[in-house]
Specification:
CATH topology of the largest domain: D-Maltodextrin-Binding Protein, domain 2
Structural class: alpha/beta
CATH superfamily of the largest domain: Periplasmic binding protein-like II
Shape: elongated
Number of helices: 26
Helix content: 40-55%
Radius of gyration: 40 Å
Largest sheet: 9 strands, mixed
Distance between the termini: 58 Å
Low-confidence stretches: none
CATH architecture of the largest domain: 3-Layer(aba) Sandwich
Oligomer: single chain
Strand content: 5-15%
Number of domains: 3
């Protein structure tokens, strides 16, 4: 029996195969071209980032000259080194900048005296509270300690004790006499005088006018009074209500520390009655009616002889240590005591007795250690003045302060000239504005809610807010419509219908965005105004712009989402149907979760597209930054702002020019973060089949 023959093993090739790719010139050229395209894309991106970064750095580091709104008050020759300017808080930036510019001449600030008088009306009690508060309490309230307290009554013992505990010894200076005016509206035609007993009843227990006199109307009495921190309130309750304000406050009166508000409340209601300093009545006597008390009206004579029941002394208070540490305070008080009798009647008060003024001058001499009151020249006084307290004394202190300013107490700037070369020194005429050097900071850029380059306000928040609002509205429109269209095309439409509808839908992406912009302005905005009202919806608004941006990105969402849904294997659908699921259940419980990463990618790409849209928002949203959350208000987005100011008369290498790139870099960072976030989302939810 023959044995089967064993197959011979294959013979190995004598020479090994050459598997190396054979060089082909055209393939090498194509490969080199593709590599060059990749490098070009990378370097182009890096170049854009470098340009954005370089111009943004220039924005935050360049000199920016800002008008202080304060002109110089006298002519400057080449030798002048001390400038006087109009007072104002805007000058505080001059000291911080270190350099100023007058005309085209740059000067270095050697010393800055921001001479100004800051007077706050917080009531006599409020003035003493601020004066004698601890440094911690003042810091928490954001207040400065007053140097002078206006008072419409003497300090009480508790206030004196609190001040002494804070190291302050109150020194009173009697400056005049006030008569408390009891007033009603000029429209009140039934009352012209009261007895003192009726006044007490009116502010203590009477609910209606008829409760006082039978012939008066049966209408409720509306009391209008200063707040409880006011010295006027304290004086009235002490003089009329025996120091017990409980019954007065039980009637729920209208209260305010602002006498203008009290005047308005009384004038508007013919059944109201109130009280405040006589000067406020004189300033508003066309709107108010002054009531006599027991047949006596306030006048210089009735106040002096005491026949008018509601007369009271007026004071200013300071402290010996404050007057020594701040010479401007002692100079101002000396000037005050010297001039007060000349103006007090014009303000609406009555002069203090001569003995009281002599006592006040002696208090000044004792506090300062001087032998006599000097003749103060305000032009030689330096340092800010801070006063707070009685709203009654406020008009008198304000008038003295105006005289102090008129006599030369003005902000002064000592400068070094020729800091950029002697040839820069030039004479300047009075009235030329002082400009100060300012630079925007990152903190201001991302926290300030105003974008007004003309006055140095560079807060990008309004532009970011408008951008996010239009993008949010756009996604609220595009997301449901785009995904709905994608579901229909992928799961419900026949291949023939899908092949016809998808290109039609994607045609929307080819329409120029400027057309969408005018569609928003001429169709969507009138539609919204017709629905919500023309007084509610502005012609330019973020709502209509956002809706049309949403329409613009519907094809993007639907196309990407449809591709993601279509890529889900049919086996998953068939398995779902085999378990008895309906078509709708299969779409929402099987297909969409399986395609979630693609849908989320479409969403994030669409958000980036909405944020970067320019023409629609530039045409329809508005042309001016506005920090508003109302979708019917006009507001400007980041891209809209860039398009608007770059298309205008914009100087190259100016602060406005650099600001475009700072906004552009912010926009780039926002879209970059979204792109990075999308990669994380896609990798987190991606399903492999």
């Amino acid at each position: 029996m023959n044995k089967p023959q064993q197959p011979h093993p294959p013979q190995l090739a004598q020479n090994p195969l050459n598997l190396r790719h054979k060089f082909k010139l055209h393939e090498a050229a194509i490969q080199a071209g593709l590599f060059a395209c990749g490098l070009l894309s990378i370097f182009t991106t890096l170049g854009i980032i470098l340009v954005l970064g370089n111009e943004s750095i220039a924005f935050f580091t360049r000199d920016q000259w800002v008008n202080s709104n304060r002109p110089i008050l006298s002519d400057m020759d080449e030798q002048t080194t001390i400038i006087t300017v109009e007072p104002g808080k805007a000058l505080e930036a001059v000291e911080a900048s270190g350099v100023i510019r007058v005309g085209q001449e740059v000067m270095q600030v050697v010393e800055f005296q921001n001479n100004q008088i800051d007077i706050e009306a917080v009531g006599t009690g409020g003035g003493f509270k601020h004066w004698c508060a601890s440094n911690v309490d003042l810091a928490e309230l954001g207040l400065k300690r007053p140097q002078i307290v206006n008072a419409s009554r003497p300090a009480n013992q508790s206030e004196i004790d609190r001040c002494r505990a804070a190291g302050i010894s109150p020194v009173p200076f009697r400056i005049g006499t006030d008569a408390l005016a009891v007033v009603v509206s000029a429209d009140n035609d039934f009352v012209s005088e009261l007895t003192f007993a009726e006044l007490k009843q009116l502010f203590g227990e009477a609910d209606t006018w008829s409760a006082l006199r039978a012939g008066w109307p049966d209408e409720p009495v509306q009391l209008v009074i200063p707040g409880a921190d006011s010295g006027t309130f304290d004086f009235f309750t002490e003089a009329v209500l025996d120091g017990d304000p409980a019954a007065l406050l039980a009637q729920i009166p209208i209260t305010s520390q602002n006498d203008n508000q009290l005047v308005g409340s009384i004038h508007r209601n013919r059944y109201s009655i109130g009280f405040f300093g006589y000067a406020w009545y004189l300033a508003n006597k066309d709107d108010l009616k002054l009531l006599a008390l027991d047949g006596v009206e306030p006048s210089a004579q009735t106040v002096e002889d005491g026949s008018y029941a509601l007369s009271r002394p007026l004071f200013i208070y300071s402290d010996a240590d404050i007057m020594r540490q701040h010479p401007q305070v002692k100079d101002f008080i000396s000037y005050y005591l010297d001039r007060v009798s000349d103006v007090i009647v014009d303000v609406g008060y009555f002069p203090a007795p001569s003995e009281a003024l002599d006592t006040a001058r002696n208090e000044w001499l004792r506090a300062t250690g001087a032998d006599e009151l000097p003749l103060v020249n305000p032009a030689e006084v330096s340092g800010p003045l801070i006063a707070a307290g009685s709203s009654t004394v406020f008009p008198l202190t304000e008038r003295i302060g105006q005289l102090f300013l008129a006599d030369g107490y003005l902000p002064r700037i000592e400068v070094k000239r020729g800091v950029q070369g002697q040839n820069t020194i030039a004479p300047h005429r009075a009235g030329v504005a002082v400009e100060y050097n300012d630079r925007p900071t990152l903190l201001e850029f991302f926290t300030n809610t105003s974008w007004i380059p003309a006055i140095g306000e560079f807060g990008v928040i309004p532009l970011i807010n408008a951008t996010l609002m239009t993008s949010t509205i756009a996604m609220l429109v595009a997301l449901p419509l785009g995904i709905g269209a994608a579901i229909y095309l992928s799961e419900y439409a026949s291949p023939r219908v899908r092949g016809a509808l998808k290109p039609v839908l994607e045609i929307l992406a080819g329409v120029p965005t400027v057309v969408y912009g005018y569609f928003a302005l001429t169709f969507m905005t009138p539609l919204l105004r017709g629905i919500f009202g023309a007084e509610v919806v502005n012609i330019y608004n973020t709502g209509s712009a956002g809706i049309v941006v949403g329409i613009l990105i519907i094809p993007l969402i639907s196309s990407m989402s449809e591709d993601a849904l279509h890529a889900v294997p049919n086996a998953l659908r068939e398995a779902s149907y085999g378990l008895g699921a309906t078509k709708l259940e299969t779409v929402f419980k099987v297909v969409m979760p399986a395609a979630l990463s693609g849908i989320l990618a479409a969403f994030i790409v669409a958000v980036s597209r909405a944020i970067g849209e320019t023409m629609i928002v530039a045409i329809a949203a508005g042309a001016g930054p506005n920090f508003s959350f109302n979708p019917f208000d006009s507001a400007e987005t980041m891209t809209g702002h860039i398009a608007r100011i770059s298309g205008g008369d914009l100087s190259y290498d100016s602060i406005d020019y650099n600001s475009i790139f700072a906004i552009g870099l912010t926009l780039f960072l926002m879209t970059f973060i979204l792109s990075a976030f999308s990669r994380v989302i896609i990798s987190r939810f991606r399903e492999a089949y």
